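User: Here's a structure from my thesis project, written as structure tokens. My advisor, Dr. K., wants to see whether a designed sequence matches the one we expressed. Can you design one independently, without my sequence as a hint?
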């Protein structure tokens, strides 16, 4: 078993930390939602995702 020595600098995975933060944001949004599920639009809003389409007219809302 390898244990980091006392006083050693912890290695941080910035991508993993960002993913954990986004999961936390989704959990908070889900707990505050009125209904059983978050809509795809609300999930995109929480995750700060943009589909890149103006107006979203051609957007595929068939996601589960």
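Assistant: Designed independently from the structure alone:
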């Amino acid at each position: 078993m390898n244990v980091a020595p006392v006083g050693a600098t912890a290695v941080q995975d910035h991508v993993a930390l960002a993913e954990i933060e986004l999961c936390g944001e989704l959990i908070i949004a889900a707990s505050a939602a009125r209904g059983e599920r978050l809509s795809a639009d609300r999930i995109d809003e929480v995750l700060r995702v943009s589909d890149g389409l103006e107006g979203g007219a051609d957007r595929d809302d068939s996601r589960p």
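When you compare it with your expressed construct, this may help: Residues 14-32 form the longest helix (19 residues).
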